[in-house]
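Worked problem 6 (solution included).
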Amino acid sequence: MSAIAQRGTQEYFVNDQKKFSLVSQGIPQPSLASTVGSQNRIHGAELVPSPESKERARTMNSSRRHFRSGLKLFFAAAIVWASSNAKAADVYIPFEGEKTTWHEGFERYDFIMDDATGAITPMTAPASEVTSFGIDVSIKGGKRRCVVVVPKKAAPGNPWSWQGCYWNHQPQTEVELLRRGFHIAFVAPDPVGQGKAWDLWYKFMTETHGLAKKSAFIGMSKGGVNEFNWGGANPDKVACIYADNPAVYDYDYVKIPVLAQHDIPLLHVVGTEDFVLRNTMVVEKIYHQWGGSITVIMKEGVAHHPHSLEDPTPIADWIEQHMQPADANRPAFADSTYTKTHYYSLDSSYMYLKKENTYATVRGPGYVPSYDRYTSPGTGNFHADAMSIVVPEKPAPGKLWVFHPSFLERDSTVALALLAKGYYIVQPPISGSGAVQKKWDEVYKLMVDNGFAEKVVMEGTGAKAGESYAWAIANPDKVSVICARNPLMRSLMSNTPPIGSPAPLDPYLPSPSKTQPIDNLAPLAKAGVPILHDCGSLDPWLKDNTRVVEKRYKELGGKITVLVTEGEGHFPLSRKDPKPVVDFILSHQR
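Solution. The predicted structure is:
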């Protein structure tokens, strides 16, 4: 008789959000006290020479399993028990079964999952696995291995991480997470896409045992396929993803925007010589385009192996930080219909990895300030009339803010510097006819009604500067300062007749009732609005726009400053050194 049969068998059936437990007749059930412990998952030494050979081994669907002779009777009994409507756990339920130990004495529990029935049955890990901390990851006859390692003291909320490839390979991150109170889980993957079996495992961990509803995913090499495949299909169940030199199947790239839209942060640890580095480069670009939060640590001169970091502290810190995303400064009006994304610089820096004796290029949140951005739903299929607000980490007294109609470039040094000073950056809506004063008026009212400053900084680049001017001219008492970068003093807002009035014959000619900003500066001068133009000496609009505005505004008694950078044209859109512009804004903040 097998050890598991002698000890007694308990099986868990996770189906339709129900938990079922069977205990063999006449055999005592293990006590709860003997099974309380900690849970862990780690990658130690690979059990086969390379990830590629391990992948081939897994796709052969062969595995060894330990079952008692009467297992089929238990499966049959489970059908009867399935009608009992057992309630899923809403508090932590300790794991049960034969305990072994894993790295630093953490308690390990092994299970067999039957894909056909959904039964998850405790088993005893073979002695060879206990000494090597390994596992037989192959699948045979629709049955796969699962492992849980429990911490010595669970952290609040019962956080956990899981993986589906290369158990115990470079396990330093998982060991560190165990020390911090994480459970660690593993479930053998299918050769390609992950579906029902992984869904059952998730239910087993969260509903049967009460672990956190969102887990951290860890994937190395082909493990990236698993985390992006299942995570992309179940974004509401994922807290964050750590991908280490990850591979990604082509058809899973369509899931990357879904992860970004669900605000799932990514951490990629890669080598500059890694043969699948292109996967990270593509994922990073997609995430930037969708406003997702992605941090990259790129080890100089390192290939696909070794994975991870010898000192896993940066990785564990990142995972721990992102288990509970915070919206500390979320504006009150930004309700659940607003989409949260992230705004941060793409600048890279160098970090020395002492134990690896190399440097790593690092970029993304964690290495540069990152700011939450909330965008209203807008209207129609293309979300027209949406507005966005970027929130500083520490708001300035008085809740100062900026109207920034231009596209918010990642290298907008002025915007980033103002955020660091505590300013909110607001992007007003741009509709089919361009900027519409009524829409901007509504945004202004929304801000002021929610306690923001009554005087706003007006910004803009090129033609968008003309729109800022147009709104400021219509509302000079609501403006603290105007800052324009290479402005074109032409405005579609000035061309747009009031709501209900007939449109002009030519939308690019001034409305009979309105005047273009360059010819209508008097309201600003009368209100004492200070103006700054930041221009390149080669900008084509410098002579006919900025210099004309400069002359006219001074004649009207207004205060205007013009900064000219020699040798620059209309581009770059943002100046390298934001200090002169930021100092101007701060010195004239009213």
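Discussion: The chain has 18 helices and 23 strands.
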